[in-house]
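Fill in residues.
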């Protein structure tokens, strides 16, 4: 949002210099992206009267002019053709400077001395192109400085507008905040309309709203007999100063009021509206409209349009259509001022790739009660600049009143949170100064009605922030909070230790946004009773439709990372992890907790002549997890379990002392297809705060084994329902002599294994601390283990 110092002064006399105002913006939390003087390169340009313009005796395309600058008569050679004697013009006299480093001095052109330059809009920096010199109004004062007269001695502020500060998208909103902070009155232009009693708007036009959810309110006025012409110089200068190109008096007024009020408006050629009826409806699938930028756009049934009885004439809240635009033949105008639902405008704008000044404002929430003021202000200015008559009355279709928002704020809570001692009366004065209506108050709290231009405010904390801004952040003393350390917080330790463990194993960390799309659950086939689906947290004011909830799992964003790297960038070998928060709503309680997500695909390393590439599969991921848990000194076990994320043949849970810590497995094909991934992907998730209970960071020393180990591998064929982790625990608890470790090293189901069965291979490690074990001793210890597993789990030894 760009504003100028002089324009703002019309709404509030701050008593501050441009530099002081810049600093005040900072203390009010209003970001200023850029700040500086306007037209500083333009000097010594004087309003003058053209006395005569004769043909140059030696050049067909030049004229020799005499101009009265108020202090002297100058002879100037000019190349333009659009001037005549009696015109008022802007003359850069000798010694003047113009944009682009141009310096004016006496020159001789085809034998005739020229003492200055008669300037065009382009030469003054007021337009990108010009057809001739700039002709000033007939009442322009001769001899006066051009910059001073038309407001070029000004300063520009480019305001950074955050999504929750829509009031900063209009000069009135910024002036209101300054008024409350500086305790100075704000001036809003008074509306005095001269309506034509013989012409009633309800006889001239009709408005029908067919979708009141997407357009809760629509207002219109009709003006007749207007005269299309260039805007006055002061308006052109002001619009150009904030980066808007002047077009004509009708269109310029709608842009001017947009910047004043922050509310978008649109002007239709009244005669091009079929049956003089405005219909606010959804577009038909495949319906087309050519917008004012000359592009033919195909619409869908979710987009809102402004139509007449025959066709769409505008994209609601975004851009008008060529079929109803103001043109050189326009004499009668229908003015629109409406309120459109923000999310629909955002979706339509994004789908069409069309962002405008109007859509930018509607997306952030316009003022539904400011519609009539903006409409009347526009009608007043058009009437003053383009003449014509204003039909009496105003169409205001408002089918269902938008409910007011009430916020109760505790006085004690304000000071406790801010660390201040703000008096009750100051809190009330600040609220009133910002446009809130104080509904009721007692000795503990006060309740306000939120104004229609601040629909982003809904909670007590929002009001506390508003009070803090106006009271002044610079007045809040810096002090360190009092902290009582009761116990060591190991969450951060787990976080850092997990990262260190994974990085040293060749994984890369990624950081994603904490949002996801609710539709992912359906598309991914997540069951209705899955906790990630039943406990997600909705976002109330999401600006991006694809991010409409807080993430309840890390997986969707990690799969997007895989797609971006493997599909878009050709990085087929990927090993990444993320440590981040997931969010859940359990009953009325909101929960945030840290989780670890690990995802791998492709090979364990890039291929080279030194080694053959190996697939980074299920057991590779299991090895990463074993390393992580070893670093954290946590004993864990795995158990087969069904999970919507994984292929049914490769899905296990991670447990420690019977408590579930997470899961890992191979991502199922449906999920991969949904994310356009063709390669196999393996994923693990670990609940860090549950893991916290089991870690033992203390390091214990023990001697390295003096004698070698002796291993035996056994493959059992068991029913599919039997958990591999259960057999592992069973073997560990047998108490076999010299058994040091039991590992699951292979799963298999398929050829040579009976249907309904699976093969699980275990590696058993034996070691004696006092001697080297013989094969006979190991076989003696190993044989009863196999027999007990066969008996208890109805297993059989796989022979091949």
């Amino acid at each position: 949002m760009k504003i100028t110092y002089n324009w703002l002064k019309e709404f509030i006399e701050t008593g501050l210099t441009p530099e002081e105002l810049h600093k005040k913006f900072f203390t009010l939390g209003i970001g200023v992206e850029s700040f500086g003087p306007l037209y500083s390169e333009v000097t010594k340009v004087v309003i003058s009267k053209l006395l005569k313009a004769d043909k140059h005796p030696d050049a067909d395309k030049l004229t020799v002019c005499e101009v009265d600058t108020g202090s002297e008569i100058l002879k100037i050679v000019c190349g333009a053709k659009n001037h005549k004697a009696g015109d008022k013009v802007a003359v850069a006299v000798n010694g003047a400077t113009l944009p682009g480093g141009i310096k004016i001095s006496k020159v001789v052109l085809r034998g005739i001395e020229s003492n200055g330059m008669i300037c065009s809009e382009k030469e003054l920096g007021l337009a990108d192109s010009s057809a001739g010199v700039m002709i000033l109004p007939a009442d322009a004062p001769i001899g006066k400085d051009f910059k001073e007269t038309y407001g070029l001695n000004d300063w520009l502020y480019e305001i950074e507008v955050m999504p929750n500060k829509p009031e900063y998208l209009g000069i009135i909103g910024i002036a209101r905040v300054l008024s409350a902070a500086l305790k100075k009155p704000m001036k809003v232009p008074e509306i005095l309309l001269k309506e034509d009693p013989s012409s009633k708007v309800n006889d001239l036009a009709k408005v029908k709203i067919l979708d009141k959810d997407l357009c809760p309110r629509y207002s219109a006025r009709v003006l007749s007999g207007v005269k299309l012409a260039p805007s006055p110089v002061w308006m052109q200068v002001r619009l150009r100063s904030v980066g808007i190109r002047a077009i004509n008096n009708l269109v310029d007024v709608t842009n001017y009021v947009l910047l004043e009020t922050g509310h978008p408006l649109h002007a239709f050629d009244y005669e091009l509206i079929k049956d003089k009826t405005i219909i606010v409806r959804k577009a038909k699938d495949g319906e087309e409209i050519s917008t004012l930028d000359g592009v033919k756009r195909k619409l869908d049934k979710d987009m809102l349009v402004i139509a007449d009885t025959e066709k769409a004439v505008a994209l609601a809240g975004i851009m008008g259509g060529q079929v109803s635009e103001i043109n050189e033949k326009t004499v009668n105008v229908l003015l629109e001022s409406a309120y459109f639902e923000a999310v629909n405008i955002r979706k339509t704008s994004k789908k069409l790739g069309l962002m405008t000044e109007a859509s930018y404002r509607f997306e952030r929430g316009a003022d539904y009660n400011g519609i009539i003021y903006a409409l009347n202000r526009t009608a007043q200015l058009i009437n003053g600049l383009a003449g014509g008559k204003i039909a009496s009355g105003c169409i205001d279709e408002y089918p269902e009143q938008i409910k007011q928002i009430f916020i109760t704020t505790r006085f004690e809570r304000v000071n406790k949170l801010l660390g201040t001692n703000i008096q009750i009366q100051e809190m009330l004065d600040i609220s009133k100064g910002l446009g809130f209506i104080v509904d009721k108050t007692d000795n503990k709290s006060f309740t306000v009605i939120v104004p229609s231009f601040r629909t982003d405010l809904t909670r007590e904390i929002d009001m506390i922030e508003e009070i803090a801004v106006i009271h002044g952040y610079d007045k809040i003393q810096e002090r360190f909070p009092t902290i009582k350390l009761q116990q060591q917080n190991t969450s951060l330790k787990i976080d850092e230790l997990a990262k260190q463990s994974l990085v040293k194993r060749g994984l890369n960390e990624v950081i994603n946004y904490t949002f996801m799309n609710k539709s992912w659950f359906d598309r991914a086939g997540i069951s209705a009773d899955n906790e990630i689906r039943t406990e997600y947290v909705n976002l109330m004011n999401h600006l991006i439709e694809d991010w409409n909830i807080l993430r309840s799992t890390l997986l969707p964003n990690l799969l997007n990372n895989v797609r971006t790297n493997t599909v878009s960038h050709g990085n087929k070998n990927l090993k990444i992890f993320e440590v981040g928060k997931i969010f859940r709503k359990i009953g009325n309680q909101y929960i945030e907790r840290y989780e670890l997500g690990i995802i791998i695909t492709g090979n364990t390393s890039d291929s080279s002549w030194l080694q053959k590439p190996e697939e980074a599969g299920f057991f590779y991921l299991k090895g990463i997890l074993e390393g992580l848990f070893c670093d954290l000194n946590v004993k864990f076990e795995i158990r087969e379990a069904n999970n919507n994320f994984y292929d049914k043949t490769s899905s296990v849970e991670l447990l420690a002392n019977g408590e579930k810590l997470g899961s890992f497995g191979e991502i199922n094909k449906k999920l991969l297809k949904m994310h356009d991934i063709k390669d196999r992907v393996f994923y693990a998730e670990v609940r860090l705060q549950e893991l916290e209970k089991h870690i033992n960071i203390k390091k214990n020393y023990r001697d390295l084994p003096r004698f070698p180990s002796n291993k035996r591998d056994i493959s059992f064929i068991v029913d599919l329902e039997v958990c591999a982790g259960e057999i592992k625990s069973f073997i560990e608890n047998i108490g076999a002599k010299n058994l040091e470790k039991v590992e699951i090293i292979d799963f298999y189901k398929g050829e040579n294994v009976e249907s309904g069965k699976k093969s699980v291979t275990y590696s058993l490690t034996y070691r004696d601390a006092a001697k080297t074990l013989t094969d006979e001793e190991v076989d003696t210890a190993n044989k009863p283990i196999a027999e007990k597993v066969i008996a208890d789990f109805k297993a059989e030894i796989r022979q091949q």
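The first helix runs from residue 5 to 9.
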